[in-house]
Design brief:
The strands form two sheets. This protein has an eight-stranded mixed sheet with strand order 1-2-3-4-5-6-8-7, sandwiched between helices. An eight-stranded mixed sheet has the order 9-10-11-12-13-14-16-15, sandwiched between helices. It is built from ten helices and 16 strands. Helices cover about 30% and strands about 35% of the residues.
């Protein structure tokens, strides 16, 4: 099987040869690349191992590999393997070996070129891939091209220092992602910017959230910097499954992270979601921060995502939160008695509010009035 050269506006895929061995050794020895591509700690990618990798990925009729070039310089690779003619399927992999180019959408373009070739030239029906569980940016890039998370193989990747989750994704012709599909996005307001929550926000989130009042009705409380890192990691794991989408709340006057909020209980068939897991440091409470955050989230939900219903809930004991939700114009729907077991063993009664699509125009005007718009 002779691989063609594939060309896009910024990326070119040319067949890989043994002459590319030095590039692969360099990329595979780069610490950030090793961690996000393979879940491996810093170390060297030995030339002998790189040679075996190229041999495995360039077996005629079974696999194929390209070098990704940008501005005529090698920057990474794309490959396919495990071709199954009867099932019209294969597994693929892609990596940008130059961290300075991450975020430039070069991997996305290269992957689209590869997908187009595999579907059109080879007639493949299904394309699968695996990605290490902490590579959140890659997972969202794959989702943006139509890949669906099909499962998480817990501790499916074994390394000398432990185990990592292995996320399995697939792209199947005729089975697209749901149309109601919240994705990471930055939402800009006059007072706040909501940006996708990431692991690197851990220190700032710890600084904003390390006070007793926040966790009076929200438990368990994260403990120390490691606790806040685990708090974010759990939210991102839920994001992989398509159940949540967390945001960092950034105050625009000084660029300080002052809290967090998220979409939760995302329900694609019914086009509904919850706004929850919201808290702010004391310097941001009783300011326009919460009102504008809710305004941005509801506007995006109803006007961009075309939601039918947005709902909110809080602990019945948290009267301050109930008042804040009611002030937004949300309608109280019910009290769910003994709805959940809290971390300390107590049973919580949850108070549920909602705004439905027919009510959104009036709710939007109400929030705009609060914000002086």
């Amino acid at each position: 099987m002779t691989l063609p050269t594939l060309r896009g506006p910024q990326a070119t895929l040319r067949p890989m040869t043994m002459a590319d061995l030095p590039h692969l050794v360099r990329w595979g020895s780069q610490p950030e690349f090793r961690w996000y591509q393979w879940g491996m700690q810093p170390g060297a990618f030995a030339e002998a191992d790189a040679r075996k990798w190229i041999e495995f990925m360039t077996r005629d009729g079974e696999s194929g590999s390209w070098v990704i070039e940008h501005e005529r310089s090698p920057i990474g690779f794309a490959n396919f393997r495990d071709v199954k003619p009867k099932g019209k399927s294969c597994e693929i992999g892609i990596g940008i070996g130059e961290p300075g180019l991450w975020g430039r959408h070069l991997g996305r373009e290269a992957l689209q070129l590869e997908i187009d070739h595999l579907q059109r030239a080879l007639g493949l029906h299904r394309i699968g891939l695996s990605v290490v569980g902490h590579n959140d940016r890659a997972i969202w890039m794959y989702k943006s091209l139509g890949f669906v998370v099909e499962g998480i193989e817990r501790d499916g990747i074994g390394r000398e220092d432990g185990f990592l989750d292995d996320v399995k994704m697939g792209l199947v012709q005729g089975k697209p992602r749901p149309s109601f599909d919240p994705r990471p996005v930055a939402l800009e307001g006059s007072h706040v910017r909501l940006e996708p929550l990431r692991m690197e926000h851990s220190p700032a989130l710890y600084a904003a959230g390390d006070e007793d009042d926040i966790w009076l009705h929200v438990i368990p409380r994260p403990l120390g910097l490691d606790g806040y890192a685990a708090y974010i990691r759990w939210a991102l794991d839920q994001t992989i499954l398509g159940q949540q989408l967390p945001f960092a709340v950034i105050r625009r006057t000084d660029g300080e992270l002052v809290g967090t909020t998220r979409y939760a209980h995302i329900d694609p068939p019914n086009r509904t979601l919850e706004i929850g897991y919201t808290w702010y440091g004391k310097g941001a409470r009783r300011t326009p921060v919460n009102t504008e955050s809710k305004y941005l989230l509801m506007t995006h939900a109803f006007e961009t995502l075309k939601a039918n219903r947005v709902w909110l809930q809080t602990d019945k004991r948290n009267e301050r939160s109930q008042s804040a939700i009611a002030r937004l114009g949300a309608v109280k729907e019910a009290e769910l008695r003994n709805e959940r077991v809290l971390a300390d063993g107590r049973l919580r009664t949850s108070v549920v509010f909602s705004v439905i699509v027919e009510e959104w125009p009036a709710t939007r005007r109400r929030l705009q009035g609060f914000l002086g718009r």
